[in-house]
């Protein structure tokens, strides 16, 4: 495949677009038809085959402009003269550094710098602090050493006899430095910055939710939304594959008995599968609120994969909170939920009573119940009888506890009492834990 196109696809993936192998092959075919000469036509053609959504179209357009645009340094000075020296290498660099009225010299310099940057491995840049290093490596690959040696020799003379030559060499060197740095900054924007963002996001995703700094919240929200989209897409693909069913060999042979056994018509077995149905029951008391925020954010970003979602919150009295989550911006909805529900003394037993009396019909054999809480109920009756009945009605009961397992059962914790009735019970500390749990919950419906 064309190395330029391969680099562009790599840049798209680094920026967050899911450019598949099949789509990359289509992009190569589009390139063969359009070519690099018509930039607008190429941008439109590649956008059609490589971008599958509005978000990816926006990513594609931004990366295309960066990747195929010629970098311009912020302070362009005129390299002053047509001076020539006797050194062919220095002459060549001076030619490149001339701006040229028709732009051809600029194009030649851009092409030479692109080759030098590739030779220097600039696409491996990951941090902005590496810009100076890669700019120097690019200049060395370009062959700046003879120019610098010539300049040093002229400066070493007690009374330089060629001040105009010194001035021209200095102007050419500075021009090349600015251009090389511009090339490296462009490649950092394409490859390094997305890699840095991905690294910082990975740090946030694996950090304990209860220790999240305020400055990390926006990054975390974006990461959770992206994780949810990928999770929804993965399970949607599984559903499409499974919809076809498994080959039924016996029925296929019967259906093709009149064709001498040649399987003209294929018959498939189809197993009835329940659509995902999730009921989330969340303790929103102060110690658990940060975990609840991201569980609900995750769940409501999974609208493509979960067709039936009910959400309940409690500290002591349980309330249905689906309406504010569906109608208000997420942060406003959470603020309202915490204000109306999160100020009471935690009482799990009363929460199960409220769920039983008002919303018991929300739970049936198709329902996965996800409980998020620490099981600490201030010594009140945990109502294990109602929780056992809930477990018998549901498909699965998954309990996520923000406390480490070593603390379960200590003090007023009823975690060990609830444990026998749960399909799974696990420590949930990070967004990665939430993703794994929801992946397993959706997997149960395949």
From TrEMBL:
**Pfam families annotated for this entry?**
VWA_CoxE
The UniProt entry, under InterPro entries, shows: UCP010256, Uncharacterised_CoxE, vWFA_dom_sf
Supply the name of the protein. Answer: VWA domain containing CoxE-like protein
Q: Its domain of life? A: Bacteria
PANTHER family per UniProt: BLL5662 PROTEIN-RELATED, BLR6139 PROTEIN
Coiled coil region boundaries: none
